[in-house]
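Kindly review both lines to help learners:
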Amino acid sequence: MVPYDRVNYGRGTMPSYTVTTVNEHVFQTGEQEARDNIEAWKAAISSAITIAAEQVSHGNPFFGAEVTVAQGQEQIGRYLVSVGVTR
């Protein structure tokens, strides 16, 4: 059941989350909607891995970034995502 405050004329609305990815080369922040906290952090980590794949495929041997997920003023999670390659 959708809580009353999440109802918009009979259709449920999803909560909005702010996702920030930052390291020495990348600063990206944006809003996303997700069904719940778990879906929000899964999408945030997936997005960071996509950035990492691009960086590594362009010759960087390592990518690491801090990813934070917040809903309003409440921080939901803070993660370190890293991808490396050996040659």
Notes: The chain is about 25% helix and 45% strand.
